[in-house]
Amino acid sequence: MPAPASFSNYIDTHADTISSDARRRQDVIMMGNWLNGQLNELGVETKLMDLGTHEMQGQTLQLPPAIIGRLGSDPAKKTVLIYGHYDVQPALKTDGWKTDPFTLVVDEDSGRLIGRGSTDDKGPILGWLNVIEAHKNLGIAMPVNVRFCFEGMEENGSEGLDECIQEEVKKGKDGWFDGVDCVCISDNYWLNTRTPALTYGLRGIAYFSINVTGPGQDLHSGLFGRTVHEPMTDLIKLMSKLVDHNGDILIPGIDDMVPPHDEEELRLYQKMDYTTEDIEEAAGGKEKKTVVLMGRMRQPSLSLHGIQGAFSEVGAKTVIPAKIGGKFSIRLVPPQTPEKIVPLVNAYLEAEFAKFNSKNKMEVEYLHGGKPWVADVRHWNFEAAKKAIEAVYKKTPDYTREGGSIPVTLTFAESLGVNVLLLPMGRADDGAHSTNEKLDRSNFIEGTKVLGTYLYEVGAAA
Amino acid sequence: MPAPASFSNYIDTHADTISSDARRRQDVIMMGNWLNGQLNELGVETKLMDLGTHEMQGQTLQLPPAIIGRLGSDPAKKTVLIYGHYDVQPALKTDGWKTDPFTLVVDEDSGRLIGRGSTDDKGPILGWLNVIEAHKNLGIAMPVNVRFCFEGMEENGSEGLDECIQEEVKKGKDGWFDGVDCVCISDNYWLNTRTPALTYGLRGIAYFSINVTGPGQDLHSGLFGRTVHEPMTDLIKLMSKLVDHNGDILIPGIDDMVPPHDEEELRLYQKMDYTTEDIEEAAGGKEKKTVVLMGRMRQPSLSLHGIQGAFSEVGAKTVIPAKIGGKFSIRLVPPQTPEKIVPLVNAYLEAEFAKFNSKNKMEVEYLHGGKPWVADVRHWNFEAAKKAIEAVYKKTPDYTREGGSIPVTLTFAESLGVNVLLLPMGRADDGAHSTNEKLDRSNFIEGTKVLGTYLYEVGAAA
Question: Which residue of A has its CA nearest to B357?
């Protein structure tokens, strides 16, 4: 069932009602309150879920609230649960941004909305708000009941959210998630810059810090060079043993855990609308198409992120750092889980470190993680989204698996027992988590139409 | 010739006239102006040497001035050139300081003066000022003519100073360094916490950054993990190939360049007042005494300092850094020089990187360096200092070589052609360049007496 013409027309003619505030990450609770107020103004009943406190940077901090929302309770209609996150990744102008990362810049020439969070994940949240606003202002009834779950800790492990969702589900008829028929999450990206996508898989993640400590304090390399066991020497050597130049993970048992693809699966990857130019433009490297796609979608990956506690500034400080943490993470695919991976990582690093016969101390710290996920693409939830994309974009979507992790996807799938759909709004080159993050204006406008149309198709689904 | 009793008595009774301002590094020019004013008040004629500008952190910055000073021109007296530096290493409270690093704290319980620069190198400069003040206030003539050279860029490669000194020397009779008979530098430390030292050798240094660049911008490890050649993988692998766990330098030709010690030299190291407890207390490691001492004094060392451009904060950012620089430096001993070392480093890293067959770009950047140095300990300059130490401390000094680098030492030795002496004020556990840097009050007071007495012994030398 297509959306009413008046809906798409409203989105086109009200395209300038984009909020221009992408707030700083430390203002995340303020951002939550702002979002809550917007929802209330649109007639959405909400409650702010206190997720308690957590330890970070040596402090006990209040977690930003999860916002649970409810719009409509018509038993004759289907109920869609919508998820988004209102927090963003860190960003500094000095990282290489051309504009202030926390001021949304509308570049009329390129048609781009530029700023931290534009595509990940404030743009999609505003898309949903615009869908509701359009129906409110046009006086049209929503085609489905909607439930919301917006969180403010996605970029830092979604702390506290799983428990919150599971408790809400456990309340059964008294809970706000009672009667949810399907879930829709818009927090990922097209495979390319041309063709909308529906996503049925996500990689999980396990994030680690290798902590090496030696001397009681930082030392002068002139005074102590070649007289002490330097923690950096051990740490760098350990980090060098994690991943090979071609991306192969050197920790035994991790790459092997994934079954090889068969011919049918290979053809699936060959069919996708993708050229190596996409990866060249976005990442500056050349690879074979199927290797790139499988590398992202059906293989684990290991990335070295950096070192905490070492010299990281401009200049030439002659320090022997005494206490350092090497950060890396592994993206996981089925059947891998953090529970299966963590012992392999610990055992390998401990065995390698033992070979050094070092006087330093080493511990592997597991910081956070999430399981990978795959969904059934033949479900009516995916069919509804496919029809919405065909109606708005006049194209058949790519069916993709995503390389990133959104742990809450699995929480919804497992605790609600319903189909979960990932319906991306942005493009592959948006630069999420990177400098100069953007969302194309056309993706925001047409994407908002897709979100609205999807709700109509869900409402009409058998 | 001993110093007059009134001099030592003055230093004892005026021990509280310690200036309490250790200024922030960015205020280094202000610090220079303050020091210049102090010198003028004490009757020292000065000129501020404009060292021009340099490029740092993408900006063109005015270099802090070198202060050249002159006190006395009696042709019947010897002339001593005194060097010190009024800049300090960076320091943040969050690095692990127990007190604000830029406020001098006098801890009465431990008898320590705590703060950035207390021992490196503001304490010794204040010692010299106190020697002059004592003579001025007591109305005693100085036993020698004194020339000063105080700079504000020592901790960042002494930019501009070499040329300044060389030009001053070239002026001959019109220059302020005309007639200098010897040089005294107080900018290092005793070998231990008990016995004063005279230092006749310094290691040089060559400081490098391995710059690896790949993608056009930082990337999200979920989106791009296992699809691009990650610069961190290459950089960490290169850094892991520089130095072994036991401190051996893996770059071919560097360790080999140093001739092995003979039996006589070994005995020299065995005789030094040193126990492994000294290194245990200061660095938390156990080593054999001669290995530790030779490691610091007669062997090169390679330290990995950190990575610029990677994730270095608390937390768990899932970034693939696009442009990173791995910082390391090599401490040099004769016959090594930066000129001999740099090509070896470049050739090795380029060859190793070529083996990776990586699509990233790598360049080895040589940031700064200085040659190593050794002096003749039988010279009257060293004899004068030995007598001063015996007079004040009632102990025979250790004759040491130092692990750090003070490139200006070599500049003075080569351009003036006179003997240069290193006369340390602080102890081995002072924590120069580290957290909670301190100078023991007793070292400051007795050390100031040594500086004054040394001038008398120079004056009396044949």
Answer: A245
